[in-house]
Structures are given as C-alpha cells and as structure tokens.
Design a protein that fits this description.
The complex is a heterodimer of chains A (129) and B (386).
Chain A: H1 2-5, E1 9-13, H2 17-29, E2 33-37, H3 40-48, E3 54-57, H4 66-74, E4 84-88, H5 93-102, E5 106-109, H6 114-128
Parallel strand pairs in A: 1-2, 1-3, 3-4, 4-5
Helix pairs in contact in A: 3-4
Chain B: H1 2-21, H2 24-77, H3 80-83, H4 106-122, H5 125-137, H6 140-148, H7 153-165, H8 172-175, H9 184-197, H10 205-208, H11 215-227, H12 237-242, H13 246-258, H14 265-271, H15 277-289, H16 296-302, H17 308-321, H18 327-336, H19 340-352, H20 358-367, H21 370-380
The chains are: A alpha/beta (129), B mainly alpha (386).
Chain lengths: 129, 386
C-alpha cells in the first residue's frame, strides 16, 4: 500500500504548526506526497496550481477559512471530484452541515486518531479510483 | 548615606519652603500633578517590565519547543511500536532524551506539560494514551498537583486544566471544596474538572453546592455537561426531589428537559405543590417541554391560584403538550383576561394546537375584538416563539 500511495498528492491545509508537521509526517510515512499550506491565502494559491488528489483542511485559519477554500475547490472543474476531509476542532452541527453541504466527503473532529485519519484517507482515495 | 542627606536636604528644604508659601489650591494641584506623574511612570515601567518578561518567555519557548517537537514526534506520534499495534503499557518511552539539564528547570518542565497538552488536544486514541504515559513517567503530574496546593487561584486553575487534559484523577477532598470557591474562574474550572474526572459520580458536587448557581454558572455548567464525552448522565430527578438549593433544582430541571428524562416527570409534578413560585414556574416549564400530558389537568386545576409567571408557563405548557383537551380553557383565558401577556400566550398555545384548533381559530378571527385579532395574527407568524 505504501508504494501505491506514492502516486497520490495530498494538499494539507492547517494553521497549527505542530498539527501540520505531525500530520505531514504521518502521511509521508505512509508514502503519500504532501503539499502543505499554513494559512488560507497560501491554500488558495496551492488550489490554483491544480496538482493534488485529495485535500485535508482545517476550518479556522487566517486570511481565508476552510469553507471558502472548499467552495473554491468545488467550484472548479478540476476540484469538483477531489475528495476533501475536514479536520477541525469545530465540531458543532452547523459546521458539519455546512461542510457536507459544500461537498466535503468526511469530517474529523480534533483530537484525531492518526490511524483513523489514515484509514479515511485511503478509503476515499480508493473510492476515487 | 550622610553624604546623600547632605546633598539632598538643602534641595528638598528649598522646594518645601516654596511649596509652603503657595495657596492651598496650588498645593493640591501640585500634589495631584506629582501623583499623576509618578503613577504614569510606574504604570509605564510595569508595562515595559511585563513586555520584557513576555518576550523573554517567548524566546525561551521558541528555543525549547522545536527540541520537544522533535522528540515527541519521533518517539510518540510516529512510534514504531504504536504503529505495529503494541499495547501502550508495553511501549518503552525514551525518558533518557529528557534526562538533560535543560529539560530539568521548572520553566522547561512547564513547557513540556504545555506541549503535551497541546498534542493531546490534537491527537487522541493510543497517541493520547502514550502522551499521558510520558507525562506520568516524567513525574510531571507532581508539578500539576503541587500547583493545586498553591494559595494563588490562577495556579490552581492552571493545575486543574493540566490534570483534566491529562485525565488524572483528583481526590474528592481536594477538588470538592474548590467547586464552591468564591472565585468564579476557579469554581467553573473545578466543576469542569470534577465532571470530567469523576468516573462514578460526576455530579456529586450538586450535593455540596452551598451558594446559588448563578445564571452564568448554569450556562457554563450546561455547556460542560452537554459537551463532555463519556460521562454517565444520572437521573436528575434525584436533586429535584432532595436538593435544598433551589438554583440546583432549577438547573436540574433544565438538564432533565435536555436529556428528555421522562422518568423524572413524577418528581417534577410533586414540585407543583412547592411553596416557591420560582420553582413551580420552572417545573411547569419542564413539564411542558417534556410534553408530560399526565400533568395537564392538574395545571389547569391550579391555574387560578398561581401568580402571573406560573400562569404564563401553564398556558405555554398546554400549548406545548398540544393534546387539545384544554382548548376551551385557552379560549376562555384569551377572551377573559385583560393582561396582554396572558392573551398572547393563550393565543400562541391555541395556534400551536394546529389541526385541533383550526375551527376555533377561524371563529376567534371572525368574532374577536380588533386588538385580539391583532394578537392572533401576530402569534400566527411562525417566527414568533414563546
């Protein structure tokens, strides 16, 4: 599985430096290629490059929040079928509903389990095939 | 010292000579000016000192955190044994990596605690358990428990936050008195910690609450109770029946409604005979929200002997129950009363009966006075709530 994962590029958007580094390391260890963005502005630039197979995003970030980024991705023909996972400490009904309304595929509330994140990532990527 | 006195004495003597010769108003003005200048200087000096201390703290944190991140990421988050599914208790921890002089200062140990908490906020499951194991094996829980004994309330709060985040159990004898503290922050944090950490009876502090639970306390507690995972929710009827603190009873009524504890209805009905109208109105409100229609007849029966707040709650409760049994009573109150609130709530309850009250509503709209028609039309707006 690790070898096969090398083909997938995951855009990881997270403003918490630790969470970003650790999640990046977890994904790299599984063989995924990871593109990171540490705020909304950087994320929007990376989204423009259209070079990713999946997006994992936080919601509360400086410059642009997660919902704005998701709308941008889903509003584009390239991003329309890209799986998106929200990883956020916002776990209220409104945020979850808004996320799914915009077309996200999964929602993980912090604190997360590393193993659970990996299973969800792999399952969504397998479904994409 | 003598030299100083010899130098300054003539200086002050000269100025005091002038000061004494001024009129009283000028003397007061000079005095106030001096006080203002000295206070400003002290305030600026204190701000500068705090900023200096803050920036020194930030610099030290910036130096130590990358080292901690490196160790924690390598040894805990990406632990190979963990990835292989080995039980957390059997995974050896790299305690030797922390056996360095720079990690032994109180500052560094506090930084480690804060970093571990930060990681635990982001990662749960086995990673969270391994972080907790590290916290214990490094003996950091002793630092947290030590702060709990401090005389300063902010250190106690810090300790409670740390122990709660690390899921450490605290003896009742240490925490229960804090749930009654006069300091609001400490009280709230102690209650939070008690609910989260007490495995068997997370609501035991309801038994020892001596002061009234303020509205703000109730809001905070409600948030803590309804958002804390894995707590056993008791039957709150226990406090409705036995608590002598009426704010606890009122708060438990809200929790009964939130958790839809139908088994508590008989205890709430007994509250209708309580002498305190505040408790009665809360009980009636809860009965309505629980749609406890077995209490409907009793509510109508006691209506005429109740004060206004209870009467309004009875009208709302009948509307919420919506059985249709007491529509005539609602109609009578709507037409009879001269009180605007009574008429408004009776109208809203008639309308909330939907198909049961269609005919009555039509008749009232045809025959009511202009003012009553206005009330009815206002209440028919679905955006208008009780």
């Amino acid at each position: 599985m690790t070898g096969a994962n090398k083909e997938y590029k995951i855009l990881l958007i997270e403003d918490d430096e630790i969470m970003l580094k650790v999640t990046e390391r977890i994904l790299l260890k599984e063989g995924f290629k990871v593109i990171v963005a540490q705020n909304g502005k950087e994320a929007l630039q990376k989204v423009e490059e259209k070079d990713y197979d999946m997006v994992i995003t936080d919601l509360m970030m400086p410059y642009a929040n997660g919902f704005e980024i998701i709308s941008k991705i889903k509003g584009d023909s390239y991003g329309a079928n890209i799986p998106i996972i929200i990883v956020s400490s916002l776990g209220n009904e409104d945020s979850i509903m808004e996320g799914f309304r915009l077309g996200v595929d999964d929602f993980l509330k912090k604190p997360i389990m590393a193993g659970e994140l990996l299973i969800r990532v792999k399952r969504l990527l397998a479904r994409k095939l | 010292m003598l030299l100083l006195e010899a130098f300054f004495a003539p200086f002050f003597r000269r100025y005091f000579y002038y000061f004494d010769s001024y009129p009283l108003v000028i003397q007061i003005a000079i005095f106030l000016t001096v006080v203002a200048i000295v206070s400003t200087v002290i305030a600026y000096a204190s701000i500068l000192y705090r900023r200096y201390r803050g920036s020194r703290h930030d610099k030290k944190i910036a130096r130590i955190n990358p080292l901690l991140d490196e160790i924690l990421t390598e040894s805990i988050i990406l632990n190979d044994d963990l990835a292989e599914g080995k039980p957390v208790e059997e995974i050896p921890l790299p305690l030797e990596k922390f056996d360095r002089p720079r990690f032994k200062t109180p500052f560094a140990r506090q930084a480690i605690i804060e970093r571990l908490i930060h990681y635990r906020k982001n990662f749960s499951g086995d990673i969270g358990l391994l972080l907790r194991k590290l916290y214990i094996e490094l003996g950091l829980e002793k630092e947290s428990f030590g702060k709990l004994k401090s005389f300063k309330w902010d250190r106690k709060v810090k300790s409670l936050i740390e122990l709660t985040a690390m899921d450490m159990s605290i003896a009742d004898v240490n925490i229960l008195p804090l749930t009654n503290s006069k300091n609001r922050e400490l009280r709230a944090e102690a209650r939070h910690a008690y609910i989260k950490l007490s495995k068997n009876e997370p609501f035991k502090f309801f038994d020892v609450v001596s002061e009234p639970l303020l509205m703000w306390d109730q809001l905070e507690l409600f948030k803590i109770i309804t958002t804390t995972k894995d707590i056993s929710i008791p039957n709150f009827a226990r406090w409705v029946t036995y608590s002598s603190n009426k704010s606890v009873v009122a708060f438990c009524l809200k929790l009964i409604v939130h958790y839809n504890q139908q088994e508590a209805v008989p205890s709430i009905i007994k509250l209708l005979d309580n002498k305190d109208h505040y408790l009665r109105s809360n009980a009636i409100n809860a009965l309505g929200k629980l749609k406890a229609d077995e209490a409907e007849d009793k509510l109508v029966q006691i209506y005429s002997s109740q004060p206004l707040d209870c009467q309004l709650e009875i009208l709302k409760a009948i509307g919420r129950m919506g059985t249709g049994k007491n529509l005539t009573f609602l109609r009578q109150e709507f037409l009879r009363s001269s009180d605007f609130d009574i008429r408004k709530n009776a109208a809203k309850s008639i309308i909330s009966h939907k198909q049961h009250s269609e005919e009555m509503l039509g008749e009232l709209l045809d025959t009511a006075t202009a003012e009553n028609k206005l009330i009815l039309k206002h209440c028919m707006n679905p955006l208008i709530k009780y």
